[in-house]
């Protein structure tokens, strides 16, 4: 099998770095194009900062008593965007000359958006790292790599180091 387009999921972890190394090796062997992607998980912001208000008056109270909430959320979002840009900038520095690559950055659900990107970019292979959360943690919060392996329409290479 020859891989023309390889989608590489990057999250700044050591596991993602190993995945990038594997993807680069495959791209060198097959002459593949790499799609380097980072997806800023929007769920982090909705669950980490807020428990949804149960009533309209509760929502109004939060705005009245926490006027800095919007500013904090914007500051965190800006930080995460910059973090994502740095991940991708570092990744592209590890792609040798002669390998065609493209940067893809989005905000959303890593599980679902990786699958959408694979379709959009016509990827023949998805390469990603596994954080190795363990069985219990993976069952409780879910694993992006497990989800992608189960739902992708193309082969998925999960690098576990």
Automatic annotation (TrEMBL):
Highest taxon of the lineage: Bacteria
Classification via Gene3D superfamilies: HUPs
Coiled-coil positions: none
InterPro entries: Rossmann-like_a/b/a_fold, Universal_stress_UspA, UspA
One Pfam family it belongs to: Usp
Limits of the UspA domain: 3-160
Similarity comment text for this entry: Belongs to the universal stress protein A family.
UniProt protein name: Universal stress family protein
Biological source species: Negativicoccus succinicivorans DORA_17_25
Lineage of the organism: Bacteria, Bacillati, Bacillota, Negativicutes, Veillonellales
């Amino acid at each position: 099998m020859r891989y023309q387009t390889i989608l590489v999921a990057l999250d700044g972890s050591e596991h993602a770095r190993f995945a990038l190394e594997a993807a680069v090796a495959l791209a060198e062997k097959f002459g593949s194009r790499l799609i380097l992607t980072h997806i800023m998980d929007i769920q982090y912001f909705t669950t980490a900062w807020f428990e949804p208000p149960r009533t309209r008056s509760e929502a109004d109270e939060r705005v009245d008593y926490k006027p800095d909430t919007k500013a904090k959320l914007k500051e965190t979002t800006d930080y995460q965007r910059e973090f994502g840009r740095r991940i991708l900038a570092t990744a592209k520095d590890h792609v040798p000359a002669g390998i065609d690559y493209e940067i893809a950055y989005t905000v959303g659900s890593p599980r679902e958006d990786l699958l959408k990107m694979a379709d959009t970019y016509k990827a023949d292979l998805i390469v990603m790292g596994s954080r190795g959360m363990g069985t219990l943690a993976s069952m409780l919060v879910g694993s992006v790599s497990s989800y992608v392996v189960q739902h992708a329409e193309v082969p998925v290479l999960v690098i576990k180091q």
